[in-house]
Design a protein that fits this description.
This protein is mainly α and 173 residues long. The protein is built from eight helices and three strands; from the N terminus they run ααααβααββαα. The longest helix has 24 residues.
Length: 173
């Protein structure tokens, strides 16, 4: 380790870069990664809060009365189509038994149904019923409305820049 460290210090380009970066950070010209991460955390929380407000305000639609987790199930099934319980549980980061309880409740409300595979009767997929599709469309429409409102504060060039950066952040590992 010490050899690599000495080698890096002896490299004039690394030394100048680190000195330049240190100079900028100490003079406050460029926000540090930690400062940006802290601000991004706050912005993401604000962004998510706005989504929760939309979800909470959805009391008039066909998804009225659904809890947040139940709405997530409906949205996932609407986005993905029929899927097995295990896939649904993995997507939601929940145990299969927790998802089973959610699916039982949603099935009792007529929003979703279980369908056995014709090829392998042991395989059961979960899909939206007609009422569930209506709830899904209403929830998506409300969220898209919020997103249009948020993007509407930007001009078209800013929207494209924002989308390009957001895609890059979303794909970062």
């Amino acid at each position: 380790m010490k050899r690599r460290y000495r080698a890096a210090l002896s490299n004039p380009h690394i030394f100048l870069y680190s000195k330049y970066l240190k100079l900028e950070l100490t003079q406050g010209l460029v926000p540090s990664l930690n400062q940006n991460a802290t601000e991004l955390r706050d912005l993401v929380q604000h962004f998510l809060r706005r989504f929760r407000v939309v979800d909470a305000a959805a009391a008039n639609g066909p998804h009225a009365g659904l809890r947040m987790q139940e709405l997530r199930v409906v949205e996932r099934l609407g986005d993905a189509g029929p899927i097995m319980m295990k896939e649904l549980a993995e997507h939601m980061f929940l145990a299969v038994n927790s998802v089973t309880s959610l699916v039982d409740k949603l099935e009792a409300q007529g929003l979703i149904r279980r369908v056995r595979s014709n090829e392998d009767r042991r395989v059961v997929r979960v899909e939206l019923a007609d009422t569930g599709r209506s709830a899904y469309r209403a929830a998506v429409d409300e969220k898209l409305s919020l997103l249009r409102l948020m993007l509407g504060g930007l001009d078209p060039a800013e929207q494209e820049t924002f989308m390009a950066l957001f895609r890059k952040i979303a794909r970062a590992e």
